[in-house]
Amino acid sequence: MFRDHLHLLTTLLTATTILTATAGCDEAQSDTSSEAEADPRDILEDKTELNPAGFDDCSDDELQTLADQVLCLEAEQAALCEAADVTEDCGQGDLFALGGENQACVFAEDAVSEACLQAVAPTREPPSNGVSASKNCGQSKVLIDVAQGAYFDPPDYSDKYYLDTVETFSNNGTYAHIATYSPDPITERCVVGIRGSDSDAEKIASISTDMVTCGALGGQCSEVFKDAYDDLVDTGLVSTIKDMVEGGECERLYIVGHSRGGAIADLLAAFLYESSPSTYNSSYMYVETYGQPRVFNTALADEYHGKIRKLRWVAAYDPVPALPASSSMKHWGTPYLIYWGFSFSSFSFGYHFEEQSDQDYWYLGAGYNTAHPVGNYDDNLDHCS
After folding, report:
1. Cα-based distances in Å from 296 to 28, 59, 187, 303, 307
2. What pLDDT, on a 0 to 100 scale, did the predictor assign at position 202?
3. Residue 202: other Cβ atoms inside 10 A
4. Closest Cα to residue 320, out of 308, 328, 310, 312?
5. Final residue of a domain: which of 94, 120, 146?
6. Is the residue at 128 inside a domain?
């Protein structure tokens, strides 16, 4: 089942496959019209993660409004959205408008009360296994600078006194660099930044699902990302990291990457861990990625989810974390959703950075050119506090 946590029902809705707005609309409208006549409680219980125990605290009109929104999202049918009285003053009438004042429309019209929303909101549980990574906004603002710096050769940190480039590595189109991060005058940490794919949506969308045996890791991993990792091994990146760590040059080690760079970061961290679990443990090594695709098969992902501390940022409408589209692959690490809109946690509009309970969390969207670029992640994290 596809998951799309939209701004107005963030973390609550689990919709089925979304139909495109340009194909099959007449048929979809007929199908959703019949569903709209069903009991809204049945619709909400079947198609969302809302808490059924809270339905009695909502009026019939409120439940019908929420059910209409779910069906509207599924079919992307403006006609159905416009049929709801609450949309009378909402521009184009789409309760799930992607921008502008429509995002606040339902709440501005008091169509669904705060008491109702609080009653039906599900209890959000943290990941039940693994080495959890808590959000650290100050740290993430530094690490995204390194992930973004990987798109330049060499990176320019002249305006960031706390960062300094040590060495760059490039081979066959794959690029990485090591930077030092000094949070204070006596501490020096090492950050490995790996370049991703910041453009060429077609290239990203065509990522192969082909898997290979992942060497010392023992399981299966993406062939294309393993090849890219091997290219960096040939440059001496891994041996340089080990020399710096063994020489006491890195008080801590961070590995970061955006998009394809995040996928390669997964492999680098896993291979370093296997080379010396006592050295590259969850207290010393930390991984942070931004809009990365999947790398490991399910078994390997679950294994490293419990060994390495990692935080995985997912921007709303970024389609890349849903790739490769293979049921045998899985994400690992603690996922956090970045979005602007209404938060049920704080009942406020603005920028939100929320942990997700699903280890394999991804956000269904088509915002490659707007949501996926590293600059979008950087801009959003500027608001993290």
Report:
1. 36, 46, 34, 10, 14
2. 52
3. 7
4. 312
5. 120
6. no
- Please enumerate in sequence order all residues whose Cβ is within 8 A of that of 161, keeping only pairs 6 or more positions apart, or say none: none
- Spatial neighbors of 243 by CB under 8 A, at least 6 apart, are none
Domain of residue 64 covers 7-120
For 219-264, write each residue's pLDDT tens digit. Answer: 999 999 999 999 999 999 999 999 999 999 999 999 999 999 999 9
Q: Which residues pair with 343 in a beta bridge?
A: 348
Give pLDDT, residue 265: 98
Unique residue bearing structure tokens 């408008």: 97
Same domain, 75 and 155: no
Regarding whether 88 and 227 lie in a shared domain, the answer is no
Residue 30 sits in the same domain as residue 166: no
Residue keyed to tokens 């000094």? 182
